[in-house]
Write a structure and sequence with these properties.
Largest sheet: 8 strands, mixed
Bound molecules: 2-acetamido-2-deoxy-1-O-phosphono-alpha-D-glucopyranose
Mean pLDDT: 95
Distance between the termini: 67 Å
CATH topology of the largest domain: Spore Coat Polysaccharide Biosynthesis Protein SpsA, Chain A
Radius of gyration: 24 Å
Oligomer: single chain
Number of helices: 15
CATH superfamily of the largest domain: Spore Coat Polysaccharide Biosynthesis Protein SpsA, Chain A
Helix content: 25-40%
Low-confidence stretches: none
CATH architecture of the largest domain: Alpha-Beta Complex
Strand order of the largest sheet: 2-20-12-15-11-3-4-5
Strand content: 15-25%
Length: 502
């Protein structure tokens, strides 16, 4: 740890002496904590960071319009447009890789859930399903099930390690939650949690913001902080030791995420890709999803916050959106590619600017909650490594089956606990009906198929199928075929055993 004098001097040369302005008012304990926190900062890089933040916030965002092109449709693999045998071939390849323990999953869970308005990690959110399962539990059970399906098919005992990138905000509660839930019956030695870095928020004139008299306002370095965190925490070595060659990276909030999706993995493997992105067709021009496109001939994602509205509105001859490849934050990387990024490219990742309302103490020591943005937060984005890929592929999946993110609190128009819950229930209802079940409402009336015109605006059918019973709708015919089932209907392992015995 640095001494007070050393720190003072370094902060002065970084142009940030105000950081210690309340030092004399701090008690011994707070001084120790503050010294520790400041010692962990990259003080050498602090000056550059602060100046860079101001420069980035000042420079108008580049207008990409003249350089941008959609990804050519022929280079996109598509679930909807591929025939069954093709999909089965990819799935088989994916299951084979999983069965050989060559696949890991990595969860991006460092965010603060500000839009959702909760103080705890988003993965701990219960969207109000009949079983009350949280996002973390659903994801854990899908890992368990896909391991089991691969084992059964290939007569082996495979492992999908689950890497979880947290931040200072989310690590402790996530660890506690997993422990309390007995790691959802996964082997804890296959769950690797680590923290991404935090960086200081900066005022518009380049000063580090004090959140308290002895505390700097820090924020995670964006989900693109992943690549630094992989290095800081020896994650690539861990993958190598375990023989993991493919990493499925996803963000915490999509209730429909197919963990270690064998179809996507098989598609990427068959194409020899080192980097792949799943997309869905954008629902409407202003939908807050990044767009996979080409900028000056190079495939990349342009984030929704940086996409020009007039470009987003462009439509083709059939009325379809020209830029329709919506990023769902579901990526596949080979370990070799990640190693390359770690060694050669991670410091070249673009810095994105977010202007935020950052609570602070003013020069008189008053705590202020700003009503308009006062701070610059710099973030890296996970997809900004795509341009470094040698063989990048795009895989389009069906939105109803694979994408329903939880971003906002109930009351917002989209991406809320209600929309997430309803998407999952509707999917499970479709699975049950496709397996040959007839579902009844509480009055004993037959329910129309989910999504059909007669389903209209009626409340979603309460049909929830445990991922431990079915990963993606498979194996349900023998349990549900020809049966008439009253709702609410919960198909968990116990019920599945009873149905099988009948
Ligand atoms: C930096 C990043 O990964 N942004 C992603 C991510 O957005 P957030 O608003 O950060 O949750 O998830 C979106 C899909 O839910 C995706 O469209 C977008 O590109």
């Amino acid at each position: 740890m640095l001494s007070f004098e050393q720190l003072k001097q370094r902060l002065e040369s970084a142009g940030q002496p105000h950081v210690l302005q309340f030092w004399s008012e701090l008690c011994e304990e707070d001084r120790d904590t503050f010294l520790q926190e400041l010692s962990q900062l990259d003080l050498k890089g602090l000056k550059d960071h602060c100046e860079g933040a101001v420069r980035a916030a000042d420079s108008p965002s580049a207008n990409l319009d003249q350089h941008i092109q959609p990804v050519p449709p022929e280079s996109i693999g598509s679930v909807r447009k591929s025939d069954k045998s093709c999909l089965a071939e990819w799935e088989n390849e994916g299951l084979l890789q999983i069965s050989q323990s060559r696949v890991g999953v990595l969860l991006l869970a460092g965010g603060q859930g500000t839009r959702l308005g909760v103080q705890y990690p988003k993965g701990m959110y219960n969207v109000g399903l009949p079983t009350g399962k949280t996002l973390y539990q659903i994801q854990a059970e899908r890992i368990y099930k896909i391991q089991e399906l691969s084992n059964r098919k290939h007569g082996c005992k495979c492992t999908i390690p689950w890497y979880i990138m947290t931040s200072e905000f989310t690590l402790a509660p996530t660890e506690k939650f997993f422990k309390e839930n007995n790691y959802f019956d996964l082997d804890p030695s296959n769950i690797v949690m680590f923290e991404q870095r935090m960086i200081p928020a900066v005022t518009f004139d380049g000063k580090v913001i004090l959140q308290g008299k002895g505390k700097i306002a820090m924020a995670p370095d964006g989900n693109g902080g992943l690549y630094q965190a992989l290095v800081d925490n020896n994650v690539l070595e861990d993958m190598k030791k375990r023989g993991v060659e493919y990493l499925h990276v996803y963000c915490v909030d999509n209730i429909l995420v197919k963990m270690a999706d064998p179809v996507f993995i098989g598609f990427c493997v068959n194409r020899g890709a080192d980097c792949g992105a799943k997309v869905v067709e954008k629902a409407y021009p202003a939908e807050p999803v990044g767009v996979v496109c080409k900028v000056q001939g190079v495939s990349q994602v342009v984030e929704y916050s940086e996409f020009q509205p007039q470009t987003a509105e462009l439509r083709g001859p059939g009325g379809e959106l020209v830029y329709s490849a919506g990023n769902i934050c579901n990526h596949l990387f080979t370990r070799a590619f990640l190693q390359d990024v770690a060694e050669k490219f991670k410091d070249q990742l673009k810095q994105h600017v977010a202007l935020k309302k950052v609570p602070f103490v003013d020069s008189c020591g008053n705590h202020v909650k700003p009503t308009k943005p006062n701070g610059i937060k710099m973030e890296k984005f996970v997809f900004d490594v795509f341009p470094f890929s040698r063989n990048f592929v795009v895989f389009e999946v069906v939105r109803e089956d694979e994408f329903s993110p939880l971003k906002n609190a109930d009351g917002a128009a989209t991406d809320t606990p209600t929309t997430a819950r309803n998407s999952l229930l509707a999917q499970h209802c479709r699975w049950a009906m496709a397996a040959g079940a007839t579902l009844l409402d509480e009055h004993g009336n037959t329910l129309p198929p989910a999504g059909s015109a007669s389903a209209g605006d009626s409340p979603p059918t309460q049909c929830e199928i445990s991922p431990l019973v079915s990963y993606f709708g498979e194996g349900l015919e023998k349990l549900l075929g020809g049966r008439t089932l009253p709702t609410p209907f919960i198909l968990d392992e116990k019920r599945a055993k009873e149905l099988q015995a009948q």
